[in-house]
Amino acid sequence: MDSPDREEKVLVLDFGAQYVQLIARRVRELNVYSEIVPGATPLDELLAMQPKAIILSGGPSSVYEDGAPTVDAELFQAGIPILGICYGCQLMAHRMPGGAVEPGDKREFGRQALTVDEPDTLLHGVPAATSCWMSHGDRVQTVPDGFEVLAHTEHSHVAAMADADRGLAGVQFHPEVQHTPEGMQMLRSFLHDMAGCSGTWEMGSFVDHAVASLRERVGDKRILCALSGGVDSSVTAMLLDRAIGDQLTCMFLDHGLLRLDEAEQVKATFGPRLGDRFVAIDASEDFLSKLAGVTDPEEKRVIIGNTFIRVFERESAKLGEFHFIAHGTLYPDVIESGGDNTATIKTHHNVGGLPDDMKYENVEPLRQLFKDEVRTLGLELGLPEEIVWRQPFPGPGMAVRVIGEVTPERVATAQQADAIMRDELERAGVTGLAQWFAALADMRSVGVMGDGRTYEQPIILRAVTTEDFMTADWAAIPHEVLSRISNRIVNEVRGVNRVLYDITSKPPATIEWE
Ligand code: XMP
User: Fold this and answer.
1) Does the beta carbon of 435 lie inside 6 Å of ligand 1?
2) Does the Cβ of 512 fall within 6 Å of ligand 1?
3) Which of these, 65, 134, 47, 132, lies nearest to 103 by C-alpha position?
4) Domain boundary at 341, 358, 388, which?
5) Of the residues 176, 336, 364, 424, which is catalytic?
6) pTM of the predicted structure, to 2 decimals
7) DSSP secondary structure string, 387-427?
8) Does 220 lie in the same domain as 364?
9) Which of the residue ranges 158-172, 269-283, 472-486 would you say has the lowest mean pLDDT?
10) What is the rounded CA–CA span in Å between residue 421 and residue 484?
């Protein structure tokens, strides 16, 4: 999607860093519009996008590897300010005259003391002694002609370098992560001072531009929006409603894997807003029958993804012809489903699980954004707070919270426990959680209830804090609240005799349980 103001777009070239999206997000936090593009984008296409500046991301490769991603050396002659980060910095040194990269025998990882040698340009305002976050093997040995060394660490004599006259700079460390305390200051200096960005972009400009670009793309064709009632699809629907109003139909598909009473809430929220452009379908039978006997988590996701689209095709056919289908896919969904250079962690139903022969064209207007950016967008679009602040709920729903076979009974067990957990957290006024839910394990253990022996399943409680859902920490819920949740679950939910609290961060775990 193009930026509203062509002067102010910064492109982030993705060389496969897990955290490349953080760079784009930090740039937007500094009020400059930014987008991620594949590292292999040809030079003429990059130039045609008229970026105000370019950032070369990090990545897992070595510039010496066969097939390592690279850039056209002419990019550095194009007069565009460029910042190279980690692998991006090594690429600059490797591709520009005079520069050299030394293959690393010793990895430098984690927090490192950073000594500033030249407190100007990129490092303007940065204290002489600070710290930075490193994660690299190779390192820059010699800076390209015209560059000067700005900072060093114990193991990298070129930790930062710049050629101020040409607006080119490189850092061996990661300014985008919180562990580089002066990172935002450095990015600000690059964007505002070296690249001359004015820093006037805000989410309102995103709405204007997204509306204009959706109108252009959709034309007079009809679009079907898969509305789940979660924040992502609700914001997508409202954005489309604003852009193309009458051509939009929102279909809410109850797959029987929602939270307790959720289907009724979604209908009550969107029915009145969208009138006859809101269609609710009860498809629980379609999904649960196909999931019978399936225990493998990836298989469940693929079945759900396929069933979703088949049911959509079947039901939408009853409503006439549609050309497009809209999804509320966010950047973390894209990155975790595996781009060209990143590993597939999970197949998210709304990205990787769709069949190839799908007859709709996809529209994903939130694809470049993070969850908290989508919330800001939702408020901008006038969505009610209770929708904007709703905790995320995955597309495959309870299927990724019922470990093992998904039967109607096991779904009901997890739903009841989940409702108790949500209820008690709300009563206790616990705030600051990003996501919280109950999952059902597929094991049994012995317990004692009344005077009798039980042999039942445990419920796992999960509550995390996170900003972007790429990393997360388990939440320190007060013990007395956990205790109330546990008591109520074992007393009120049949078939459960233990309650466990998950105290694992992401990574190494994920947020969901499947
Ligand atoms: P994980 O479990 O991968 O979850 O740490 C990260 C975030 O993504 C949500 N999630 C999904 N969302 N479709 C979605 O729309 C999916 O298939 C899916 N799987 C996980 C999860 O709830 C968390 O917010």
Assistant:
1) yes
2) yes
3) 65
4) 388
5) 176
6) 0.70
7) HHTPPP--TTGGGGTB-S---HHHHHHHHHHHHHHHHHHHH
8) yes
9) 269-283
10) 9
Please indicate, yes or no, whether residues 31 and 118 belong to a single structural domain of this protein. yes
- Tally of CB atoms within 10 A around 265: 15
Query: Percentage of the chain surpassing pLDDT 70?
Result: 93
Nearest CA to ligand 1 atom 10: 394
Pair 416, 485 in one domain? yes
Mean pLDDT of the 68-73 span: 94
Domain residue limits at 130: 6-194
From the alpha carbon of 392, which atom of ligand 1 is closest? Answer: 24
| Local structure of residue 281 (DSSP, 8 states) | E
Contacts of 462 (CB under 8 A, 6+ apart): 435, 436, 437, 438, 439, 474, 502, 511, 512, 513
pLDDT digits (tens, 9 = 90+) for 387-414: 888 888 888 999 999 999 999 999 999 9
Peptide bond into 507 cis (omega under 30): yes
Q: How far apart are CA 129 and CA 261, in angstroms?
A: 56
Per-residue DSSP letters for 128-166?
A: SEEEEEEEESSEEEEPPTT-EEEEE-SS-S-SEEEEGGG
Residue among 460, 511, 513 to mutate when testing ligand 1 (max atoms within 8 A of CB)? 511
Distance CA 218, CA 215 (A): 5
Which residues, at least 6 apart from 291, have a Cβ–Cβ distance to it below 8 Å?
Answer: 300, 303, 304, 399, 405, 406
Same domain, 381 and 416: no
Distance CA 407, CA 293 (A): 8
Residues 224, 510: Cα–Cα separation, whole Å: 31
Report helix, strand or coil for 320. Answer: coil
Q: What digits encode the pLDDT tens for the residues 92-121? A: 999 999 999 998 777 788 889 999 999 989
**Residue 336 bears catalytic tag:** no
Backbone angles phi, psi at 457, to 5 degrees: -95, 150
| Token pair 């660490």: residue | 153
Q: How confident is the model at residue 360 (pLDDT cuts 50, 70, 90)?
A: confident
The whole-angstrom separation of Cα 17 and Cα 74 is 23
**Ligand 1, atom nearest to 348 Cα:** 17
Q: Is 337 a residue whose pLDDT tops 70?
A: no
Provide the CATH number for the domain around residue 453: 3.30.300.10
Helix H or strand E segment including 359: none
